[in-house]
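Q: For a teaching handout, I want to show students what a protein-ligand complex looks like in token form. Below are the inputs, and the small molecule is magnesium ion. Please produce the holo structure.
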Amino acid sequence: MSLLSVSGITKSFGGVTANKGISIEVGEGELVGIIGPNGAGKSTLFECISGFYTPDAGEVKLDGKRITGLAPDVVCRAGIARTFQKLRPFQGMTVLENVMVGALTRTKDVKHAREVAREWLSRVGLDEKVDTFARTLSTGQRKRLELARALATEPRVLLLDEVTGGVDQRTIPGLVQLVRDLHGRGVTLLVIEHNMRVITAVAQRIVALYLGEVIADGAPQEVARDRRVVEAYLGQAYVQ
Ligand code: ADP
Ligand code: MG
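A: Here is the structure, written as tokens, with magnesium ion included.
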């Protein structure tokens, strides 16, 4: 049985159907990449899985239990954490406090939450920033902060939305290694990634979206060569 089962997810905004009957099965411990040109519906799918949007149709199940339509904090406590493509740290809180918010979903003990937060901040390389305000961080640092906050909730399934996008090139190998380590620890990952080289190197399977639909789902090398996938990316290159 799949750990995460997405079936027939449909979500429209006015005249735009961002997700059109998307179905994806993710097994426990899998690392699945999600690719697709801008506007393909990748972030919307994450919003529907994590409870930030209620889909118009379809359902999401975690470990066989329906979670569709539950509030984000309930979905998070059920075991699904996510990062945002558009960063949303609590600006007026310190870096440490931001991550403690994540840890406090699992413990009421503030001291313990602080220890957990420090540990994750160290794992993502933000030790020196613990006491600074989140608003002073660079884009790359904010991405790592979001990752630490998501990890502090002890997710079974982690949804990463373009963690390497817009960050300093030098930090990419460290982030990729962190994703590999998490996978090695048994975290199930669904990773939206723009950098094809990064995603084909880390993912066990890739799902390609185009205009709100799944156009390919399989081994990274096969999906990268798939005719519809290549055309979808070429189309974008011509349009831009
Ligand atoms: P991706 O993450 O693959 O780039 P998105 O899921 O962000 O794609 O967007 C898919 C489509 O849905 C786009 O056409 C986008 O403009 C539209 N869309 C996404 N979110 C909203 C929203 N909150 N309101 C209106 N349109 C939206
Ligand atoms: Mg997106």
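A: Two things your students might notice: The mean pLDDT is 92. The first strand starts at residue 4 and ends at 13.
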